[in-house]
Write a structure and sequence with these properties.
The protein contains six helices and nine strands, in the order βαβααββαβαββββα. It is α/β, with parallel strands linked by helices.
Length: 183
């Protein structure tokens, strides 16, 4: 398949639960023949993001990778019942037509399981703006993940949902690339 999938996990923490989940998904999609490209908050100069400097080196690399990718995965801890402001600030740099008809997966983690509904609605609206093909959001609550020092162990149920999300994403990438006529 040899398709690139951009992953954005903008948690400022080195020990991020949402980034951990994104890496599990990335491992699965890589085994299926896709190539994950990771970006984190540390890949951007804060002023470049804040002032929307799309030609700044870090921002330009992210934008070009996103435009060329077959899919986008956003992973965030839940803040104030939705995705993190850092994620929103970086996503605001993506051109409006960069994700048209591309599969897009939202991943979130939080202490409170009821946040899953709000963050899912936020992802649906965000991906709808971009006219991307939103996949069912993946939510993992903190009690489903034992996490320390950057390493984690998922509960059986959470691991099954993570693996399913990766399979569905790979299938969506495959379907999207097969639907496009090859020159």
């Amino acid at each position: 398949m040899s398709q690139s999938i951009v992953f954005l996990a903008p948690s400022p923490s080195d020990a991020s639960r949402s980034a951990f989940i994104a890496h599990v998904v990335a491992s699965d999609v890589q085994r299926a023949g896709c190539h994950p490209a990771f970006f984190s908050l540390r890949d951007f100069e804060p002023a470049d993001v804040l002032f929307g400097r799309s030609t700044a080196p870090g921002v330009a690399r992210f934008i070009e990778a996103t435009k060329a990718a077959a899919a986008l995965v956003l992973a965030t801890p839940v803040y104030k019942a939705t995705y993190a402001g850092a994620l929103k600030a970086i996503v605001d740099l993506i051109p409006p037509d960069a994700l048209v008809d591309k599969p897009a997966l939202g991943i979130s983690t939080a202490r409170v399981a009821t946040h899953a509904i709000g963050v899912n609605q936020a992802y649906v609206a965000l991906f709808g703006f971009f006219r991307a093909r939103a996949q069912d959001a993946l939510f993992v609550s903190d009690d489903e993940l034992q996490f320390a020092g950057g390493a984690g162990v998922l509960s059986i149920d959470a691991e099954q949902r993570v693996r399913k999300a990766a399979r569905v994403l790979v299938q969506a990438v495959y379907d999207a690339t097969q639907a496009v006529p090859q020159p």
